[in-house]
Amino acid sequence: MNRDLTIGVLALQGDVREHLSALAECDALARPVRRPSELDSVDALVIPGGESTTISNLAIEFGLFEPIKKRINGGMPVYGSCAGMILLAGTVLDGREDRPPFGGIDMIVRRNAFGRQVDSFEAPVGIDGIDGAPFHAVFIRAPWVEEVGPEAQVLGRVTSGAAAGRIVAVRQGHLLATAFHPELTGDLRVHEYFVELVRQSGSHGVEMARAGVS
Ligand code: GLN
C-alpha cells in the first residue's frame, strides 16, 4: 500500500533495526542509509535514537552531513526520535559546538534534559493528530524542547510526573521529531503518522537528488 515510496533509516549508529521493522510493519518500504548514493534513492528519512554527537560525527565522516542538510532544506520528510530530534533542532543546548545538528525545525532542544541513564522513564504523552489512548512513551537520556519558533507546531507534552508540561513531540511541515522512542514499544501510531506524512509529500526532492541537482 505504501510501497511506492521508500523510507530510509540513517544507519550510522543507534536503534536502526527497530525503526526498519516498525516501518515494515506499517507496510512501508524501508532500507538502511549509510552512503550518499543510498540517501539519493530514498523519499524520506528516519534518524534513530542513539548518540547525537556520534551520529553527527559519523555523518560528516561518511560524507552524508551536507547531503542530508540539503535534502531537509529541499523538503524531504524526516522523522527524528530522541538523538534524531536533537539532530533536527535549529539550536541544541548542552551539545558540542563541533558536532552540529542538521537543523530544520525551529526549536531549541536541550540534550539529556531529563537526567542521566538511570533517570530513563516511561510516561503517557497525548499527541495531536494521533487518535486513541495517550502514547506510552519511553524516554532514554532524552532531550526535551525548551522552546519552539512560530513555524513549529507542538504535538505533544508529558502529561504527568515531575516533567509534566515538557514539550516532547514537534512537527514543522515535512519534519517530525519525538524525544521518546516509539520504535521500542510496538505501538506503531507515530510511524503510521510519519508514513502518512511521507505519502502526502510524494517523492519530494528525490528526483532532484537523483539528477544531482542541489
Ligand atoms: N542522550 C542522547 C544524545 O544526546 C540521546 C539518547 C537517545 O537517543 N536515546 O544524543
Characterization of this structure:
The radius of gyration is 16 Å and the shape is globular. It contains seven helices and twelve strands. The strands form two sheets. Strands 2-1-3-4-12-11-10-7-8 form a nine-stranded mixed sheet. Strands 5-6-9 form a three-stranded mixed sheet. By secondary structure, the protein is of the alpha/beta class. It has helices at residues 16-25, 36-40, 52-61, 65-73, 83-87, 189-201, 206-210, and strands spanning 2-10, 28-33, 44-47, 78-81, 89-93, 105-110, 121-127, 135-139, 144-148, 153-158, 167-172, 175-178.
Briefly, what is this?
The chain is 27% helix and 31% strand. With 214 residues, the chain is of the alpha/beta class. The mean pLDDT is 91.
Strand order of the largest sheet: 2-1-3-4-12-11-10-7-8
Stated plainly, the CATH topology of the domain at 2-106 and 171-211 is called: Rossmann fold
Q: How confident overall, as mean pLDDT?
A: 91
Helix content, binned percent = 25-40%
> In percent terms, what proportion of residues is strand?
25-35%
Total helices: the number is: 7
The strand count comes to 12
Sketch the topology as an H/E string, one letter per element: EHEHEHHEHEEEEEEEEHH
Query: What is the H level of CATH, i.e. the homologous superfamily of the domain at 2-106 and 171-211?
Result: Class I glutamine amidotransferase (GATase) domain
Shape: globular
The CATH class of the domain at 2-106 and 171-211 is Alpha Beta
Bound molecules: glutamine
